[in-house]
Known about the structure:
By secondary structure, the chain is mainly alpha-helical.
Amino acid sequence: MMSFYFGRLVEIFPFFLSGLWMTVKVGFLSLIICTVLGFILGMIRTSDSVILRRIVGTYVAFARGTPFVVQIFIVFFIFPEWGLQLDPFPAALVAMAIMGSAFVCEIVASGIASIPKGQWEASASSGLTKIQQLRFVIVPQSMKVIIPPLVGQYVLLIKDTSVVSVIGVMDLTRVGWVTVMRIPEGLMVFALVGLLYFAVSYPLILLSNHLEKKMAM
């Protein structure tokens, strides 16, 4: 019986590859969006404006303090009641952006905060505006602190894409659930799902470890 299930699993393996491709699309598009938003929010988080810092702080607290599945339900089921109807794929990207940008924001803010005050004063004395100080002096120096945990966060974001299956996105996890209905051998099916997730995440883990060692040197 096991050999029969294995044969069936081999036959429908292209179905898993299509799910893996959807996971990769959601994951890496989300990484781009989260990185851009996270850097913007991180710089605002360290700005001189108390009001802006509190607004961003509230956003970050909500995104980090609530389950991702709740956030994706809000985007997919509640937003339409406010006039914003989204299909599953864009809804998944929006939810990932909300969640991921909050974590990236904290990483970026911590990196910026690690730069000595003297660097701010030196760049200000050179006649640079606050934006120019961040762009040309502060952020480049803070990348040594930011990059290793940022890549580690990317791994977590890739794994969190599994939650988008709850709103109908045919990602790798949903493919696994659909397959279990046809092949009642859950261990075999989800072992394959886990291996495919690992194939995507492991290069990022290696990159994170490499960057940590390189930055430490």
